[in-house]
């Protein structure tokens, strides 16, 4: 599904190298987790994959289902099936959540040469998805993320994911700022989307999210590289011993 | 006073050969008095403080700058779906063929040309009156010029709640038409009227509308200024508000090389409400000026100014907005916001918000901002699959929404929103 090969990234504005040769291969239906200390390059990885400005890829390739995505605009990556759940979802005053979602769903369909969804079908679709995420009608009407609590914002991210039905989902610290109940709700939303044709890359500091979203593979990232890869037990090791042991071990 | 002499000479030169329209004793008297006002003030120049941000020369010149007439089939006319009484002017001349029958229960509509000959006491007292009041403390010579020389326009007397809006449609026929229109409207106590205005009108358009809103009456005004990119316009909307009356005006502007819209309101009755709003969308050779002056001269009145402009490719936006609270106008609630969204570094927004308050128990606030498109929001939308242009349009509409929300009538608001979307889509090309 997603192949990252020897990815080197520096900041566009300054001479600071962030990723120093990241390689990762996520198969269809797999859930991978990236853990790592602050500043290791986890979030940069998600931004570079989604096409945010400000980063320069100096070396390496990224393909989604064999397609080179690094040359694509963010909206083209989205239409190709990539989705990033933001660590800090953006507030957009004046744009209704529903309008936003319908525009996004139909823009992607159009880009893929599919027929746009009718207003009635869309309404049915979103109501069903919103219900399972405990998102009420009021939240759908309000401007995108404006006045939403931390939990509401993250649930709204998962709602977007459910509506857009991407193939490759990247969750950037989706657990940050969530209490246990909210985290469970979000995890349930994610688990409901698990499918043999859909892959996930879960970026997190803590193991606790991985109790709810069970990964197949866990990667430890440090200083812009994947330093260790293993099974779910690797996350538990981090939980018990912190990153220091692992980092010392690979140093 | 060399400056003053220069101005006087220029005004004299400009008015040479211009003669006051014929007809009607009271109208002639009002015109003569307006001409005297104009001669006394002189036409505006760049040196005038009130014209610091907008060059008046093409509005005052003897020669009319040409403006091409665009194909009327270019886009469907705005307000087409609204049930209304249509009154059409072509290059400032009433077109009876294209207009509806000027009859509606509780509303009497006459043409200035005819009314001037008959003895309509209310119009006599109003024509040029609110314009005269509006000349202090700031001079508005182009409005006086209009009172003096306008040959056509409507005299509208409203005694009940009008069943349908009156829709004034200003068609543009000739490349060098120079048009002055003057409307006078009186909304009697408890009566209600909505006036819609649209169309480019002329190559150069000078329009005055004087509106007396009596006690407990309501006046709604919605205007769309689109099409015919080269046209120039200066408009004055004078209003006087009685007790517990409502005055609401909204303008959407999307074209025009030069537009100056002045709104001058006197709130003389207690508990009245005045809302003035505008949304402008400027691209390239576009200069748009909203100049607003609201005087609170009564207790417990509310006024609100909401102006938004989206500018790109070197377009210029101007906002001069003032709230004057006179001594004794206690419990005044005044609000003013002007904001510009600059889509590139070539465009500019010039704002002069002013408050002048002589009462001690009032709540007045004003704010003005200039900003670029929110890159974070843009990326968020794109990351969800919305293409750049569409994402930008969505953010532009969101920005303008606060102003458009000021339109009370939902049908009209939707009509203008649809128009706005059409313009945005066309401009993507």
Provide a descriptive summary of the structure in words.
The complex is a heterodimer of chains A (251) and B (429). Chain A is α/β, with parallel strands linked by helices. Chain A contains 9 helices and 12 strands. In chain A, helix 6 packs parallel to helix 7. Helix content of chain B is 24%, strand content 37%. In chain B, the strands form 2 sheets. A 10-stranded mixed beta sheet of chain B has the order 2-1-6-8-10-12-14-16-18-20, with helices on one face. In chain B, strand 3 and strand 4 form a beta hairpin. The longest helix of chain B has 19 residues. Chain B starts with a helix and ends with a helix. Chain B: Pfam families: SUFBD_core, SufBD_N.
Précis, in short:
Chain A is of the alpha/beta class and 251 residues long.
Helix and strand arrangement:
The complex is a heterodimer of chains A (251) and B (429).
Chain A: E1 2-11, E2 17-26, E3 31-35, H1 42-50, E4 55-64, E5 67-68, H2 74-79, E6 82-85, E7 92-96, H3 97-111, H4 119-132, H5 137-141, E8 143-144, H6 150-164, E9 168-172, H7 180-193, E10 199-204, H8 208-212, E11 217-222, E12 225-230, H9 233-250
Parallel strand pairs in A: 3-10, 3-11, 6-9, 9-10
Antiparallel strand pairs in A: 1-2, 1-4, 4-5, 7-8, 11-12
Chain B: H1 2-15, H2 25-41, H3 57-60, E1 85-90, E2 93-94, E3 103-104, E4 107-111, H4 112-115, H5 121-126, H6 129-133, H7 141-149, E5 154-158, E6 166-171, E7 178-187, E8 192-198, E9 204-213, E10 218-225, E11 232-241, E12 246-253, E13 258-267, E14 273-283, E15 287-296, E16 302-312, E17 316-325, E18 333-342, E19 348-357, E20 363-371, H8 375-383, H9 388-404, H10 410-428
Parallel strand pairs in B: 1-6, 5-7, 6-8, 7-9, 8-10, 9-11, 10-12, 11-13, 12-14, 13-15, 14-16, 15-17, 16-18, 17-19, 18-20
Antiparallel strand pairs in B: 1-2, 3-4, 4-5
